[in-house]
Request: fold
Amino acid sequence: MTNSIEELAQADVIFVIGSNTTEQHPLIGMRIVEAVRKNGAKLIVADPRKIRLSDFATIDVRLTPGTNLAFINGILNTIVTEGLANEEFIASRTEGYEEFKASVLKFTPEKVEELTGVPAATIREIARIYAKATNASIVYAMGITQHVTGTANVKALANLALITGQIGKEASGVNPLRGQNNVQGACDMGALPDVLPGYQKLSEEDVLNKFAQKWGQNFAHGKGLTVSKMMEEAAHGGIKALYVMGENPVLSDPDSSHVEEGLQNVELLVVQDIFMTETAKFAHVILPGASFIEKDGTFTNTERRVQRVRKALDPIGEAKPDWLILTELIKAFGYEASYTHPKDIMDEINQLVPSYGGITYERLENQGLQWPCPSVDHPGTKYLHKDKFSRGLGKFTPAVYRPAEEQVSEEYPFLLTTGRVQHHYHTGTMTRRSWALDREYPDGFIEINSEDGKALGIWNHSRVKVISARGEIEARAVLTDRIKQGVVFMTFHFGDSPVNKLTNRNLDPDVEIPELKVCAVRIEGVR
Reply:
């Protein structure tokens, strides 16, 4: 997030797109509701479904899955053509505006209405509300990123903040909500294929030299593979060994039959986790990790806030904290690893990662700190880009729209999109072991528009078969008006209705994120 969670309550306009915030990020969702109820903020919600936030929205629109980029460009077109741009901000703090402006002129609201199903008048109204706000905040999640245009979608939202000057100040910005509790921290620490910790580039010699002094001259620093490419390589023999830690790709990755093929094909699969998962069933070796309550360390949350986690219980059985398992593994390979406590690792992070330079265990004792925090006398950074952008000037980027790779056909007449429910988390590895949560949502379901259900001859709560070009599953039908005709919705929590058997492996060409949010299916009743 460019800004902080608490700032949402001070925004006078909040634009939520591709995020079912109250169910996926309920504490942040409460802040948004607070902004509306207590401070009179105008809320704009764009999603394929009617979500809980829709009840608080000034404007609530149903997008056709896969058309986010066209929709955002339609808003940008209105801001340009109606003279709503913040010319002073554009002139003093940005570059590339003229090329960008030319790229959105063809996305008239009327043209965008044809692509998205959102009325042209509504697109214009959204643009006017957002552009005229004193402080406007954009909030998005995986409904924006898990598309073949995921990177372009994010760049378009950045264009929206730049053209209106809604960035570099409080209660504004572009605010992605991370999917799990330490995704931000994992990325910060280099769990990406093309950077070292702190997003330091593999191509910069001074960076490599700095890390070589700590890790040795021959440390691995070649560009790696994304998860999607790892599974592809595993399936075709390009990867011989795979180490999976705290992840369950059999349920969470697209085209799960292909994932299973890859896992079965490797010569060594190691799974490190706190519970037996669908992925762990394929493992040659299982290493029992410790839960958050059984270890010391830090997490970095979605607003860049680094916080302590403290051990309250000893690990059960042979389980060990992840850092200790990895330390012992490094030693077993014959390398030096002199860490005796997570604090030792944080000390190394302070030395190697400039944005974490001032985030020490002592300072985290009573409060969290938001990076960048370069020195021990720095208070942390509440919001980014206050006086200038990290690259100097903010850059407008023409975002070229292209439709989703998979479209409806006579054989597969419905668009399936996926998400979560509040009671379950990710692949249900933890939450489905809670009897109370599992009681509320015990099985997989598919939301179908009531009129579509009637046309198909499907009754509410009857069993149906959902079929794509890659496989088929069964689920319970839920007939509802929360979703538009021609679109259906499923969650990926349930191993008995593994929705990712259906989804496709079409990738964003820039970052290779799969298009989990759009695939074509047909629905049949189960006799």
